Amino acid sequence: MIQIHIPGFHDLTIENVLLDFNGTIAIDGRLIAGVRELIDQFSDRLAFHVITADTFGSVKKELEDVKCRLHIIPEKNQALSKLTCLQTLGPQKTIGVGNGANDQLLLKEAILGVAVFQQEGVSTKTLMASNLVIHHILDLFAYFEKPGRLVASLRQ
User: Fold this and answer.
1) Which residues constitute the domain of residue 77?
2) Which class for 29: exposed (0-12), middle (13-18), buried (19 or more C-beta within 10 A)?
3) Over the stretch 7-29, which tens digit does the pLDDT of each residue have?
4) Distance in angstroms (rounded) separating the CA atoms of residues 61 and 106
5) Are 13 and 5 within 8 A, CB to CB?
6) Residue 96 belongs to a domain with what CATH number?
């Protein structure tokens, strides 16, 4: 668990991180370098969940031995499937992270919605539903090490 006080925003007590796969922690079905190690590094404090329709059919291999729980969802109604997963985890204690249009509800309903703007870009609807936009997924893990950066971005 990580606790962060953000004046004028929320007091965050984060237990879960719900991550989209493609475009967020993977590009073209391949895990981004450094993600595996950082998930494993923070897995003693946070429960990591990866949710995907597995477009490239590679998620099981890419996440083999990574300390996370994998949720493979059907191709239809992906946004609702992601929202249902978030509701099961508890939106008040879960960070939602994604980039695609199917991540809009996830980012909107999570206590902290983080849009990732990498090679695939980010859906404008998802961007507008987020609380924070980051340039690279590795930036997310820097907030866990140095929460003051998150405070600087979100305080009012």
Assistant:
1) 2-154
2) middle
3) 999 899 999 999 999 999 999 99
4) 25
5) no
6) 3.40.50.1000
